[in-house]
Amino acid sequence: MSHFRDKIVWITGASGGIGEALAYRFASAGAKLILSARREKELQRVKDACEGDGENIAILPLDLEATSSFSSKTQAAIEAFGHLDILINNGGISQRSLASETSLEVDRRLMEINYFGTVALTKALLPHFTSRGQGHIAVVSSLVGKFGTPYRSAYAASKHALHGFFDSLRAELYKYPIHITMLCPGFIHTQVSVNALTADGSPLGEMDDAQQQGMDPDTCARQMLAAIASKKEEAYMGGKEKYGVLVKRFIPRLFSRIVRKTKVR
């Protein structure tokens, strides 16, 4: 996709899943990449597997809970290739537990990583985009950022919060222009459920049936790049679960009956 040739793209959560698939897609499109996640070894693996010149890919370890480091991390990302064109806020963590059984500490951790980590990194980079008068922020939310389902109460809350923040930010930045795209995947075949937090904060350690049968991450990444290239405000990826957005909006009582009977684990 020639739109991204020589664009400088910073991807968080790039060590696996959707983030890894996005790295491969952007690299094949000729972009220069900064790959971030906590696991440096896995970032190196992704870099080595990317198409093209390795000199066009920088590794920048990043922990979304360590917000005090974001100023220096952002400066390092800018210095890697001189500036940034696109930030992909993809890093995060999911949840698989009933709300009534989930400790408040788990609720707080989901918000700290998914919401505050994303918002803090965006705020750290925003002066760079506004000073250049351009930029694009893509946020990997979720379909549960549009509606809630069982076993994902805190996860859904953190993703809903992102929509509220970035819808407001989009309105504030219209004059620059700085574009914001909310990307909402449904069931994607990744390790997200394996790493999801349970009621006591421990990882689930197994893949959901729904995740197992989900969309291939490369297909998801291809659709995400198309949405970013088109400067869409919001886009949905996945199977029939995508239609939940419309059912929730226009027939909410029907949606409530469907979602409580749907197997989401």
Outline the fold blueprint.
Layout: E1 8-12, H1 17-28, E2 32-36, H2 40-49, E3 57-59, H3 70-81, E4 86-89, H4 104-132, E5 135-140, H5 153-172, E6 178-185, H6 209-212, H7 217-229, E7 234-237, H8 244-250, H9 252-261
Parallel strand pairs: 1-2, 1-4, 2-3, 4-5, 5-6, 6-7
- Which structural class is indicated by helix and strand composition? alpha/beta
CATH class: Alpha Beta
Query: Rounded to an integer, what's the Rg over CA atoms?
Result: 18 Å
Looking at the structure, the CATH topology is: Rossmann fold
CATH superfamily label: NAD(P)-binding Rossmann-like Domain
How many distinct domains?
1
The biggest beta sheet reads: 7 strands, parallel
Q: How many strands?
A: 7
- % residues in beta strands: 5-15%
Which sequence of SSEs, written as H and E, runs from N to C?
Answer: EHEHEHEHEHEHHEHH
Number of helices: 9
Q: What are the low-pLDDT stretches, counting only 5+ consecutive residues below 50?
A: none
Distance between the termini: 35 Å
Q: What is the second-level CATH architecture? A: 3-Layer(aba) Sandwich
